[in-house]
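User: Okay, second chain of the day. Same drill as before: sequence in, structure tokens out.
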Amino acid sequence: MTNPPSPPPPPSPAGGSGDPYQQPGYGQGPTGYGPPQPGYNQPQQGYEQAPQPGYSQPAPGYNQPAPGYSQPQGHDPYAAGAYGSPAPYEQNEKKKGRGLLIGGGIAASLLLVGGGVFAATALLGSSGTHPYEVLPQDAFYYAEVDFDPEADQKTAYLNIKDQLIEKFNFDEDADLFEALAEPLGSDIDYDADVEPWLGDRFGLAVVQDADEPEGFVAFASYQIADADKLGEARDKFDTSSLVQGEYLIVSNSDREEVLPESGFGDVLADRDGFTSSLDELDGNTIASMWLDLGSITQLAADELADDMALQNEFGELPDFEVSGTVVAGVHLDNSFVQAQIKALDIETAEDAFGDIKLNKGEVAKVLKSMPNDAGIALAVGGLDEYVNLALEEFLKSPEMADVSEMLESSLRELRIDADIFLPETVTGILGTTTGIYVSESGGALYADGGDEALLSQIGSALSELGEQANISTEGSTVVVSGGNIGEGQLGENANFDKALRDLDNAHFALYVDPDTMDPYMEDIGIIGVTGQVENNGGDLTVRWVLP
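Assistant: Same drill. Structure tokens below.
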């Protein structure tokens, strides 16, 4: 099969370079949507915009924008000469059908937000608008896949493409896009009925709807590259559909009214905080996601409230209100693939998370100091505070008294003179920053700010049980190790910094090198995880550094 088409680039001006990375439509964004989004609307440095013949005169029937929607300046996707003949459908024209959106199509389309999107990023063409500029404003979930991302993402993909194909036996001509055909009907063939007209972006939005059996309705939006080709295929679709702006929109509902004849006047692009939340993601992305926690929590609460069997078993469920936003994105670099999740402005009706939060402590120092043969290396700042909080709640339960006495008795038998449930004991064992090192032949606990005397007692007790434990001190860090410990420092690894985003400010960090754990295993690269946790949010970044 062939990949989704991109419209041919406009001719270069006289004396132009003919650079294939010149992208029409990257100037000032559509009016009414605030300042242009970083990474989307501004031209890449070094790629000057060329005049765009054929993009100036709109085709008949496209002179008036839909309510709440403005055509992008300098780029009319349906202009005469841009994609061939004028569009056969008026903007916002709704075509009726059976209203079937296959559930598997939604699930499969969401999978494209993950690894399956890589092949698509090699395409070069026009950018145009985003699906969130035509999808309903009251959505609680939104996902977008960009088959024509910014120039840095295309360049990064071309640099890592061969490794992706080699490691996963990945065929660029595989049927990755078949999932996009499923929402349009069970008999729709991607190659014949979708690929000829599909543009560069696909979006999905989900809206709460009490009239639906599931409590929600989903809308899929397909950017249109060739309106004539869409017209030829549209009669085959099993679902009602609407053309709004540059997009074909379908839903999973049998109710015709969910697709308004005039299109959605209030769109996600105009929702307060929507685009600014997406802007919190680092760098340009090939795929992104946005989630309104308040709405999804309410949807789950309503579902549980209707589940009488669950209430009969566990009693009346407590109310749990939460608000805030979660955004996620996939970003490509010349040497790694990055997935990032951010929780923003999280609030709860009650102080569900308490006053305890992780901190950066000495996370970077502890992780860098571990031996360079680490297969797994983990460092967490403030873990002792979380454990102390859990123990405090644990001891409030009357039935825990016997368990507490049993543990203390066991410690006395091992001649460990400490009350395990005191906060200072926990901090003495874990330190204020805690690290774990695991290699093929050994392991260690790192306790920065730990109690050397207490840990020595524990080491001696382990030795009496036949488990050899060595105690050493490296500055403020106490190390309890066993087995054969490697040499050197992990921070000297050539891929260490690539794998761990913003390590110096991370509250926790994880470094995984599977190849060092099994020398016979094929080298698949390094996985790095960093993140921060605050009372009102946090972030998690996962990087896969290619070998």
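Residues 363-545 form one domain.

User: Thanks, on to the next one.
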